[in-house]
Structures are given as structure tokens and as C-alpha cells.
Amino acid sequence: MNRQPSERHIIWSNLSLDVDDWREAYKEFLEANEIDADPNDENGLYEYMVETNDEYLTDERLNLDVRLSQPIIVIGDLGLWNGRRSGYKMIDSGNIKDCLFSDTDYTEWYVDKYGDLRADAVHHDGTNHYLYRAFKDGISDTQKENLQYKIYCGKATRADITRVTKRLGDEIAKVYGFPIPKQRTAAELSR
Known about the structure:
- The protein is an alpha+beta fold.
- The protein folds into two domains: 15-63; 72-176, no CATH class.
- It has helices spanning 23-32, 42-63, 141-153, 158-164, 169-176, 186-189; strands spanning 8-13, 72-80, 83-91, 106-112, 117-123, 126-135, 165-167.
- Strands 1, 2, 3, 4, 5, 6 and 7 form a seven-stranded antiparallel β-sheet that branches.
- A hairpin with a 2-residue loop joins β2 and β3.
């Protein structure tokens, strides 16, 4: 069977939680734990939904405890009160699980159809879009600094980024077993 890659493989999200999707699980939770609470209590249901979903994020961090040989750079397209800006942050641990942290109100992490780990993070001023990439082995500090400078100035192109970094989706797809397109080699790109 030849499965086509989907547009995105969601790792974790709290963007579109719907309490109706959690009603049966909440009732089962109350019964299984012999909790004498009203299964129709909307506040209790909402609290259960949020807490349980947050526990799932902890599970995903455990699943993605994958240490890479190089640091990860998070490239951000930031929605700020005064407009959009670009920026970056380093994850020096090189561990994919450390990508799954956010200080925004709502976040969704996913692997896109190109094999890139991305996140959409909503906050009171707008939405941030993040791209997570690991530096390739053998890249010099100067090359890393040049990319960081281009990102800071808002001038980094996709070619600039892919020249010195690699996607994280291959490692993530190994954990979850979903298909992503094969990454083209330099030889294939030059044809």
C-alpha cells in the first residue's frame, strides 16, 4: 500500500480542544475512579480535558527523547503587537523533546509534508510560527553565526536554512511510524 504523506502529522495540540470530544472519557474517568461528581458539570469536564491533554504533552516529551549530535535552532516568524518579526532561539541540548515547550496560550506542534517540525503558537498579540532544524554535522561556528545573523535581519532564505541545517521529521517519523517524503540528496538537487 502506497500511503501519501499527509499535510501535517500533529504531535500535540491544545488549539482546538472541544469538550464534546471528551464527554465520554470524562464519564468513564469518574466511574473508573469511583468519583462522586456530576458527569454533566461543564467546569469539571473542562478541567479534566485540559489536565488530561497536558498529561499527553508530557507523554510526547518522553516519546521524543531523541538526542541529536548538534544543537537545534528554532526559527520564528513572530506575531507581535507592533507587527511581524523574525527571530531565533537555540536549543543547545540537541534533544527533540526540548522543542515541546511553549509560554504561549495555545500551541500545536506538527511535522509538515516536507518533514519539518513546526509549531503554531497563539498568544494575546498574535500567532508565532516556529520551524525547528538541527545543525548539520561539520558546520563551522561561523556558518552558524551567519545563519543566525540572516534570521535576525529577516533575510534568511530557505536555501540559507537548508544549507547548514537538517529537518527533524526523519527522527520523529521513526518514533511514530508515519511516512514522510524522502529527503533529496545534494546530488539529486543538482540535477
